[in-house]
């Protein structure tokens, strides 16, 4: 396991090679280190070899990756679209399956909403779109579509389960409807509370100071004031 994957120069953890995020000098054998070389026989990472060049949060991410040693074969790619690189944008927006599902599930205006944005901006723009063309809770529906695209992708990759577009569409719509039944859209109503405000006198012989203040904006005009009263209210 890991015999043919360069520890520093292949993209195997995160979105970039580890060589792009290191600081300080390389280990003398850095160009030749594979992922397997950086693992001890116990299955733990050889932190003496890697920790001095990597930020702490990256080292912690490496430590969280479980590995099992096996001599059953060499490293191979286990998934990937044959038509284009499997990027997030391809899986969730531009891939063949994604485009078909978006066209089945959303009307044309929504399907093209924010389409000129890059993937991250497109994603957050939809997440922040609570209502669009009469679609209440659009951000929730959008989230379920995104989640379902990842779910069906994993079914195909890891369990070799095929599915029809109609089945995928019905599955997504059922999840959205289930959520709406459990979390109905709340009406724009305000609950009115009655709070009785009164002045409580201090003990005899004690003077009490009451203060209040307000501000228009932050920063902006503000005002404050106070009043001293004895136990008789004078």
What features would you describe in this structure?
The strands form 2 sheets. A two-stranded antiparallel sheet has the order 1-2. Strands 3-4 form a two-stranded antiparallel sheet. The longest helix has 22 residues, at 138-159. 7% of the residues are buried. Strand 3 (208-215) and strand 4 (222-229) form a beta hairpin. The chain starts with 46 loop residues before the first helix and ends in a 5-residue tail after the last strand. The chain has 8 helices and 4 strands. The chain has 2 domains: 1-76, no CATH class; 88-182, no CATH class. With 234 residues, it is mainly α. Helix 4 packs across helix 8 (165-182). The protein has helices spanning 47-50, 56-63, 88-94, 96-105, 108-111, 119-127, 138-159, 165-182; strands at residues 131-132, 135-136, 208-215, 222-229.
Output the number of helix runs: 8
**Helix-strand string:** HHHHHHEEHHEE
Structural class: mainly alpha
Name the helicity range. Answer: 25-40%
General form: extended
Radius of gyration over all CA atoms, rounded? 30 Å
Give the beta-strand count: 4
Q: Looking across the biggest beta sheet, what order are the strands in?
A: 1-2
Largest sheet: 2 strands, antiparallel
| Domain unit count | 2
Strand content: 5-15%
In the predicted model, the low-confidence regions spanning at least 5 consecutive residues are none
Overall mean pLDDT: 76
How far the N terminus sits from the C terminus, by CA atoms, comes to 85 Å
């Amino acid at each position: 396991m890991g015999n043919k994957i360069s520890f520093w120069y292949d993209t195997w953890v995160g979105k970039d090679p580890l060589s792009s995020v290191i600081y300080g000098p390389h280990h003398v054998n850095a160009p030749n280190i594979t992922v397997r070389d950086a693992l001890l026989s116990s299955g733990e990472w050889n932190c003496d070899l890697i920790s001095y060049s990597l930020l702490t949060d990256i080292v912690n991410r490496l430590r969280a990756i479980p590995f099992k040693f096996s001599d059953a074969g060499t490293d191979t790619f286990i998934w990937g679209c044959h038509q284009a690189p499997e990027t997030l944008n391809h899986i969730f927006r531009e891939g063949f399956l994604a485009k078909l599902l978006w066209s089945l599930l959303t009307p044309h205006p929504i399907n093209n909403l924010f389409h000129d944005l890059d993937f991250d901006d497109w994603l957050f723009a939809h997440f922040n779109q609570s209502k669009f063309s009469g679609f209440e809770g659009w951000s929730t529906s959008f989230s379920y579509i995104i989640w379902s695209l990842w779910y069906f992708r994993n079914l195909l990759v890891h369990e070799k389960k095929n599915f029809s577009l109609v089945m995928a569409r019905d599955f997504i719509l059922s999840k959205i409807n289930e959520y709406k039944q459990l979390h109905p859209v709340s009406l724009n109503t305000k609950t009115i509370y009655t709070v009785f405000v009164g002045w409580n006198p201090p003990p005899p012989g004690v003077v009490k100071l009451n203060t209040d203040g307000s501000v228009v904006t932050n920063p902006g005009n503000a005002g404050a004031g106070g009043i001293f009263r004895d136990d008789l209210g004078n």
